[in-house]
Amino acid sequence: MALNLGSKLRELEKKTEKAIQGGGEQAIAKQIAMGKLPARERINCLVDENSFYEYDLFVEHDAREFGMDGKELPGDGVIIGTGKINGKPVAIYAQDFTVAGGSLGSMHARKITKIMDYALRMRLPLIGINDSGGARIQEGVNSLAGYGEIFFRNTLASGVTPQISVILGPCAGGAVYSPALTDFVFVVDNISKMFITGPEVIKSVLGEEISMEDLGGARVHCETTGNAHFFAKSEKECFEQIKTLLSYIPWHNEEQSAVAATREPSKKYHIEKIVPIDPTKPYDVRDVIRSLTDNSDFFEVQELWAANIVIGFGRMAGKTIGFVANQPMVLAGVLDCDSSDKAARFIRYCDAFNIPLVTIEDMPGYLPGVDQEHAGVIRHGAKLLYAYSEATVPRITVILRKAYGGGYIAMNSRHLRADFVFAWPMAEIAVMGPEGAANIIFRKEIMEAADPDAMRKQKVQEYKDKFANPYVAAAKGYIDSVIKPKDTRQFVLQALELTKSKTVGRPKKKHGIPPF
Ligand code: HXC
Q: Could you give the domains of the chain?
């Protein structure tokens, strides 16, 4: 028989058409009725137009038990491929809930691990869109093996290539651990659900009733658990957030972030007007960050969780900077378990991906109290010390007002090897606040005074005059310069330029043992 290209092409077209139909019209209609986009559409919304190339379209599952023999599962419930975002290549997988609930069997897992291997080998960011009922029950331990292979690769790629998880449906059982091992988790209101044990299990074991949304919905993971980093109201908004994130971060750990065109901060953010002189008065530290960044852009990470610390990306002189800033507007910007965790992880991210860190400090120290002590503030607080001490990227600190106690050390002090520390003239750098300090060191004088209140006031003032300023620290060289607030951007820019070629050595070791 003569070879006929036309018939081969028709065969390919027919097979492709069948494979891309997913779970069929009815299942796709159900997906859309739930406010969810079909998997292929999600990818096309995310990547640059016509840039997606799919692989392993014709992979078939190999399960034989529990009615699986001969069952057709197009693509085995997951789409893998590469595309471009902002003109640069990325690797992607998207689980297709319309095919066996996007459940993960051995071939489904093999497709995911294949694209993970590509991403690592080609040094590309990996974006995983999760929408799945978890381990494919019919495939038993083979499903579990598949998850194990994914978790191992997540860990291998950690700190080498960016890993982004997008939760666009259920992400149940052990499946949640892949997103938890990745760098950034995106969730969408009313669509994302993440939990280890679902409402039915909780009801049968504990007798407690809870909805899926209240157990592990998008808000829960953004506001309460801190598992998610970005909250969106719709899938489309979520994809825009991913694109913005990718505009800031380098493609891998041996690359620098792209340099954007430089624009001055907006005049709207007037640094002297943002920060009140009175150290007890709150303000929004994000306005301070915007007064420093190019075009006043700031892309906040984990905005809704542990809001007493602010983390996120901005640019200075066109280059991406990681900002860590106490937020005086929330709990006076105090450090606690969650804010330490939040900042420490972000610092490690920036350090792994060559992103310089700028720290804005204004906080009264670590939060006192039984709750915090018993929640492990010692262990959690230590993460912040560890993360800063370990980081070798350029590190610059600006102390605006309060820098008390352990918090002063933890917030990228000279003692943890900050490259530059600047303080404003109203900065107060001391072991503790004047009230607490005076009550302790002048207790006897206050108790024995004819008028203890007047004596306390006098001693508080004495302490303030002596220690609540930046000059004691400046006299020791712990801070490099006391600067005028309006000169802050100029000082930070200059410090960033000076630290561009920073090199530091560290003792040879396999790895450290951070207080995880
Ligand atoms: C096989 C599954 C499945 C699974 C869903 N399906 N989950 N098939 N294994 N894990 C199938 C359903 O049978 C159904 O098939 C189709 O997907 C759609 O599911 P529905 O239940 O109709 O959808 P919905 O009502 O939207 O409910 C979604 C859901 C529910 C909440 C995710 O399906 C569910 O609770 N699934 C099980 C979740 C779970 O317990 N997973 C295992 C976790 S243990 P048909 O043919 O009817 O369309 C785990 C261990 C991993 O993951 C450990 C790793 C370390």
A: 32-247 (3.90.226.10), 271-431+468-498 (3.90.226.10), 434-467 (no CATH)
